[in-house]
């Protein structure tokens, strides 16, 4: 390692140390106790925040630091967790403390995934999706990853999907003229592709990194909630490999999906693929174009 690399590492470690000192003080005041940090472990897997499991004299907590200083990031996340919690359908970790800098959550000990868990997950998600609204959207904007997610209300799904999901990502991205023309062609077809459906409260970012199995119960984290087409959650669950068969079978039993739902999943996933393209670039551009070409024939 070169001297420059050592300097960068030292600066990072000093920053983390300062964050921990400040956070322990904040948690002590919030919990009205003298919190003592015993040890900590960095948790990898997320792409937006820096996360740690901390062990203290009163127990373990999960911490996320808003290193990129995205304004209101944790406020929106907490509002999403509370909205899901109020439905009494899927569990979420308890919020211990949050501000612009840090989010402290109850630590959930995960265990092995089995058939009982996947069936329970499918049932719980179907129950969440039965929560509905008069319109598609939400009464506030939030985030998908570190990107702003607009949630202005629309009375039909196609209009919402185009104007609040696809177009905002196209506007901030570096997409070719060819890709943008393909999207314009898709917009003309969407109303005939998606059947009329009621808005459902959805998690909004439902991939394998955003749930925890604990004693066969499911806890969801990192929501990007809104009232949308429930096929969005199903599609997102399949984007990076998919969940187990028991999950989909149970979900479909308790809340059957509309006819031909499988052929619409790729279209639903254009949104998270646009988000990933804007955040990470790479192969996501070719995936997007491949889906568009398969639809625009």
CATH topology (level 3) name of the largest domain: Aminoglycoside 3'-phosphotransferase, Chain: A, domain 2
Q: Estimate the strand proportion.
A: 15-25%
The total strand number stands at 11
Top-tier CATH class of the largest domain: Alpha Beta
**How are the strands ordered across the major sheet?**
1-2-3-5-4
Structural class: alpha+beta
Q: Tell me which CATH architecture of the largest domain applies here.
A: Alpha-Beta Complex
Structural commentary:
This protein is of the alpha+beta class and 297 residues long. The chain has two domains: 3-106, Phosphorylase Kinase, domain 1 (2-Layer Sandwich), CATH 3.30.200; 115-295, Alpha-Beta Complex (Aminoglycoside 3'-phosphotransferase, Chain: A, domain 2), CATH 3.90.1200. It is built from ten helices and eleven strands. The chain has helices at residues 3-31, 73-86, 115-129, 157-172, 177-193, 231-239, 245-254, 261-268, 270-280, 284-295, and strands spanning 37-43, 50-56, 59-65, 95-98, 102-106, 142-144, 147-149, 200-202, 211-214, 217-220, 226-228. α6 (231-239) crosses α8 (261-268) and α9 (270-280) packs antiparallel against α10 (284-295). The longest helix is centred in the N-terminal third of the chain and has 29 residues, at 3-31. The mean pLDDT is 92.
């Amino acid at each position: 390692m070169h001297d420059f690399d050592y300097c960068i590492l030292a600066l990072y470690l000093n920053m983390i140390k300062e964050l921990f000192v400040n956070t322990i003080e904040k948690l002590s005041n919030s919990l009205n106790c003298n919190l003592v940090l015993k040890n900590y472990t960095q948790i990898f897997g997320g792409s937006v925040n820096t996360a740690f499991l901390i062990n203290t004299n009163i127990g373990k907590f999960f911490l996320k630091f808003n290193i990129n200083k995205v304004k209101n990031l944790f406020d929106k996340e907490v509002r999403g967790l509370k909205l899901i919690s109020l439905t009494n359908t899927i569990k979420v970790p308890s919020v211990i403390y949050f501000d612009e800098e840090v989010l402290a959550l109850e630590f959930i000990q995960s265990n092995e995934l089995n058939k009982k868990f996947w069936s329970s997950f499918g049932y719980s998600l179907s129950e969440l999706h039965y929560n509905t609204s008069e319109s598609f959207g939400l009464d506030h904007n939030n985030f998908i990853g570190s990107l702003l997610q607009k949630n202005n209300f629309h009375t039909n799904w196609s209009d919402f999907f185009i104007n609040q999901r696809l177009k905002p990502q196209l506007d901030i991205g570096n997409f070719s003229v060819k890709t943008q023309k393909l999207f314009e062609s898709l917009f003309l077809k969407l109303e005939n592709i998606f059947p009329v459906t009621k808005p459902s409260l959805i998690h909004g970012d439902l991939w394998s990194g955003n749930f925890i199995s604990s004693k066969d119960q499911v806890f969801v984290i990192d929501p990007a909630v809104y009232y949308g087409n429930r096929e969005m959650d199903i599609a997102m669950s399949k984007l990076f490999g998919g969940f187990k068969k028991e999950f989909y079978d149970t979900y479909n039993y308790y809340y059957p999906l509309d006819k031909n739902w499988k052929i619409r999943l790729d279209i639903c996933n254009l949104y998270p693929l646009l988000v990933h393209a804007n955040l990470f670039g790479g192969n996501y551009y070719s995936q997007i174009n491949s889906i568009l070409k398969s639809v625009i024939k």
